[in-house]
Description:
The structure holds 2 protein chains of 2 kinds. By secondary structure, chain A is of the alpha+beta class. Chain A contains 10 helices and 4 strands; from the N terminus they run H-H-E-H-E-E-H-E-H-H-H-H-H-H. Chain A has 2 domains: 200 residues, Up-down Bundle (Multidrug efflux transporter AcrB transmembrane fold), CATH 1.20.1640; 87 residues, Alpha-Beta Plaits (2-Layer Sandwich). Chain A has a 4-stranded antiparallel beta sheet. In chain A, helix 5 packs antiparallel against helix 6 and helix 5 packs parallel to helix 7. Chain B is an alpha+beta fold. In chain B, strand 13 and strand 14 form a beta hairpin.
Amino acid sequence: MIRLFANANYDFIKWRRWAYGLTATIIIPGLILLAVKGLNYSIEFTGGTMLQVETKQAVSTGELRAALDRAGIQGADIETFGADTAYLIRARVGAAATTPSGGTEETATAVRQALTARFGSDTTQFRIVRTEAVGPKVGKELQGKAFLAIFFSFVVTLIYLAIRFEWRFGLAAVLATFHDILTTIAFIRYTNLEVSLVVVGAVLTMVGYSLNDTIIIFDRVRENLRKFRRQNLYEILNLSINETLPRSILTHGTTMAATLALVIFGGEVIRPFALVMTFAIFTGTFSSIYIAAPVLLYIEKRWPGQDARGARAFSGRAPVVNAPSVPPAPTPSGGGRSKAAV
Amino acid sequence: MSTIRGRIIIIALLLLGSVWKLLPTHVTQRVPDQLTGRMKDTSVRRVPINLGLDLQGGIHLALEVDQSKGPVADCADAILRAERVVRTRVDEFGTTEPVVQVVGQCRLVVELAGEKDPTRAKQIVMQTAFLEFRITDMKNQFRDALPAIDAALRQAGVKAPAGAPVSAVSQLFGQDTTKKGAAKDTTPDANAPGALSALLFQGQLPGEFLVPEEQVARAESLLARPEVQGTLPRGLELRWGTASEVRNARAYRALYAVENRAIITGEELTKASARRDQLNNHSVVVFDLSRRGSRKFCEETGRHVHDYMAIILDSRVQGQPPIINDQICGTGQIDLQSKPLTEAQDLALVLRAGALPAPLQIVEERTIGPSLGQDSIHDGIRAGVVGVVLVILIMVIYYRLSGVLAVSALSLYVLMTLAGLSMFGFTLTLPGLAGLVLSVGIAVDANVLIFERIREELQHGKTVRLAVDEGFKHAMSAIIDSNVSTALTAFILYLVGTGPVQGFAITLIIGIAASMVTAIFVVRTFYFIWLRRRPDMQTLSV
Lengths: 342, 542
């Protein structure tokens, strides 16, 4: 029988300040970069025109650009898409790339004509496999909707957790999820992934996945709070994280198998989604342990009270050394078990 | 033991139901009839899962009322009427399952799956198709008014381009020189070239003018000026022709002065069909008129024998206006000259379906070629197979026999998710396919939670039977809470998202429901059977 991390007894909470530092070094430069450069929004959000072109022979972006320049379409983004025979041509609303009339439809038609002029109308030589033209109004609407979706998912989660656990658990879970959104945005900024509707979908799925993970640990915390009434929250959090560790490893392993398969084999169109989800597994796991649990500890310190279901007040003052049911395995982190709250 | 039998029956029903839902069935599809070129219903045998546009290729259009040429008071009403017209058109133009629906207040969404010719489909959907017949300016009122128009423009400070001919209306063909002098006489400042008339050349018919192609934009902007609109003779309007014609190696666009009153409009059409004229090999659209329309048409054409009648479609004069030789009643035809027959067929189609209440503009367009859709399906399935195989390996190696139970429940899970998509008529999109692959990874989570719990209980020294019971019992709250919160997020995604994202959310929600059923109910039943066959089991393969 293979058992990973069975009876683990690591003092996770002790390392929380290091963890804060680590995540801050990821988030803060990411957010500064975000403020300076903004996100690489897809034309769904900015409005604009996108064409995916496949050619039979490899052509350079320079050749494509020359063909478009000749037709008077300047400043379009041209990039390869997986292979050097597949290209994405993008022209955003407001950029210089649009045709004089400015309409996204007209731009699509103009690009099509420019390419036909360059390659001829023979569909074996080149073909346009995908066209998207989004007016600026629709783009604005979608932007609003995306933020609305993230906001509502927060509110609904908070309410659900408040009902099922207690408001303090809900707040801690939502803060952890908020942290995940920040790191994911930083990740998207670092990798310069294009933010499309599908990527926003991935961020929302990430929210669900990360919450899921947090809830599994909180569920164990809730149970242990009732079981070990004499231990303080610091120990109970550590105990709960350690007890759910094998499950975390296994579930994240299988999910990672699925997302990596999508990254490698799923094709260009779905790759951004799969990349965000792969990152989500790391940040979701990290935040469940190092954000949600310590935040719960902090909240309890600030607003002590009855825990979920009134099992008991969990603001233990002096930690009980040698708590009865804690597995007596050695603590690899140096046995800092006597430290109380934050 | 009856509980076990009951559970097995339920599982068998779920399995059979899912398989039955996914068996290829006869699905009604509209396909073009080779003989008539029209669409007809046929039944096709295929797996009844709707594929999204991103998987089978097609066009997604979001349309709004075009308010750029004059505001439309009630856009909601206009869109509702447009929806009916567009639906009639695409039903006949036909793709397998056209979607035409009003979204929000004033937006119309049209989805044509599997369509290979986006330009043509757009034309069918977008064309206003407002048809009218008008008599041209037989008394040359417009030409006579040109000097006044030029004067008005001059007063407004518009200069004719340098080097323009002095005459009011230049004669392209050298005929009809008499009017030239007359026009000159009435011009107050005869030596200055007229701003507008310098651009116009007299055509062959009364009321027909030709404008050099490169001057069309300038002429258009001049004609739009209020000075010109104010001095136009009463009862006359100007309409451009459709195509440019080449004369003496120069391209000209025709401009027609026509009466502002239509003899009849497309509303009176009852039938329209396309055919090829045997004599001159032109494509023509032949139409029939309603009884009221034909009475009116008879009367009007009777009064205008030997006049020229402009056929105007969406403010463009189609071809050269034909002469009315005799009273025309009942039927008529529109000559499209050397244009391809498909164009005539499309025109006949939109005329049959009727005109749009207001012009539409595209606010969003997505076109996905069928080859890209094929590639996406191929890549998605490949990723899915690799992902599932990896998950199976992890589960079986780590949990051994219990892992095998979970994996067999997993196959039921995939079947149930697909059957759920089919049953509720939801559409499988590319993100949906990704969601399905992802959910296979997540679906085992419930089993992992249960198995880990059973391991813990066994470690605490409980018997196998008790450990299994306790494991399921204690894992339940975590499974429910985590799944419900994920489902809530997915539900919000569905409410707020559009198109492909909704497809993803749906797949995720169905997947969550199916994974809870399989992980809790099905695996539990497997354990029941296993423990009953081996009641004295001391160690559990978990």
